Amino acid sequence: MAGDHLMRIHDAEFQAMAERVVRVTELTSRLNVLPFTDEAGRAELLGLILGRPLPARTTIYPPFYTDHGLRLDLAERVFIKQNWTFLDYAGIRLAERVMVGPKATFITVGHPVDPQQRREWLSGAPIDVAENVWIGAGATILPGVSISRDAVVAAGAGVADDVPPASLVTGGKAVVHRSW
User: Fold this and answer.
1) Is the pLDDT of residue 14 over 70?
2) Structural domains of the chain, count
3) CA atoms of 99 and 80, how far apart (whole Å)
4) Can you tell me the distance from the alpha carbon of 155 to that of 10, in angstroms, rounded to the nearest whole number?
5) How confident is the model at residue 33 (pLDDT cuts 50, 70, 90)?
6) Quick one: residue 68, left, alpha or beta (phi over 0 = left, psi -120 to 50 = alpha)?
């Protein structure tokens, strides 16, 4: 996956991304109101959102939300529960046998902390999740995070740093680091 990315807001790259976001929002809106038993309809819309068919034995329970779709790389046997959000412009990869609980959020884009720069730039970095990882309900995974094989991210955890293999990550308490 590509490394960190910085994009000037309102340039051609940003405009193309914004157009894709509008298209994918329309597609996910349609997908999220289909009867769950309409497998053909779901497959067609997921193909348009992802730019390719959903991998074999991969399960997605709507509703779900993504802003780009084309940079969401799902392997076989991935299982994703309802109400998840993937902001995937900088790239998200879920390897085989990853399980994602309801209301999990993966965010690959953001803005600089500096108040002046945040109105001019969009920053981003990919998220990479290795094989057999379990992401608990309501967890938030932030830009640039890699989660190693067999790790578990507990429900409600906020993950801003890489996660070592076969480890448990917990905690979601906000901490003030500095004031303006």
Assistant:
1) yes
2) 1
3) 6
4) 36
5) very high
6) alpha
pLDDT digit string, tens, across residues 119-169: 888 889 999 999 999 999 999 999 999 999 999 999 999 999 999 999 999
* Nearest CA-CA partner of 149 in 174, 129, 179: 129
Q: Give percent above pLDDT 70 in the chain.
A: 94
Instruction: Tell me which H or E stretch contains 147.
Output: strand 146-147
Residue 130 within a domain: yes
Q: Is 111 a catalytic residue?
A: yes
For residue 153, tell me if it sits in a domain.
yes
- Residues 6+ positions from 92 with CB-CB distance below 8 Å: 71, 72, 73, 86, 106, 108, 126, 127, 128, 129
Q: Which of 5, 10, 68, 111 is catalytic?
A: 111
What is the CATH classification number for the domain harbouring 91? 2.160.10.10
Residue 154 lies in a domain: yes
Distance CA 98, CA 80 (A): 8
pLDDT in tens, 45-96: 999 999 999 998 999 999 999 999 999 999 999 999 999 999 999 999 999 9
